Amino acid sequence: MTIQPAVVPVGGIDRSECQFEVGRVRPNTGGFHGKGLLVSVYTAISDHERLAAYDKLAGPAVQAGGGRVLSLLPSLGGRVVAHEAGITQRVVLVEFDSFEQAVAVYESEAYQKALVAFPDGVERDFRIIEGID
């Protein structure tokens, strides 16, 4: 099923030039490259020590799987301007060459070990999404 919506720019792509299918957006030009993105938005952190233990395991697991950290704010001193809900906790954004690669890293033995160390005192919204390149 293909739906042609009104013209609204999305990620630099004119939506009138896209085919929308259930769960997928593909530019008609054939220029779609489904990068994989890990998006983790932390809403509460009360156990920084255990979060650091998780980080020591998760970071190498993600890098070994080809992940490139694009954002680790405000942990690395970057700037944040919060709108809407106004949450300024840590945001982690990691890019992979493909969606499948991102999923494989999440399901890997190394990352699963990191999840065991993930503290109860931390809340986050974690997603793996397919990006438009």
In short:
With 133 residues, this protein is α+β, with helices and mostly antiparallel strands. The protein contains three helices and eight strands; from the N terminus they run βββββαββααβ.
Describe, in plain words, how this protein is organized in 3D.
The structure is a single chain. This protein is an alpha+beta fold. It folds into 2 domains: 1-32, no CATH class; 36-130, Alpha-Beta Plaits (2-Layer Sandwich), CATH 3.30.70.100. Helices cover 26% and strands 32% of the residues. The chain has 3 helices and 8 strands; from the N terminus they run βββββαββααβ. The strands form 3 sheets. Strands 6-7-5-8 form a 4-stranded antiparallel beta sheet. Strands 1-2 form a two-stranded antiparallel ribbon. A two-stranded antiparallel ribbon has the order 3-4. Helix 1 (48-64) packs antiparallel against helix 3. The longest helix has 17 residues, at 48-64. It is globular, with a radius of gyration of 17 Å.
Report the top-level CATH class of the largest domain: Alpha Beta
The number of helical runs is: 3
Shape: globular
Radius of gyration, in Å, reads 17 Å
**Could you tell me the mean pLDDT?**
80
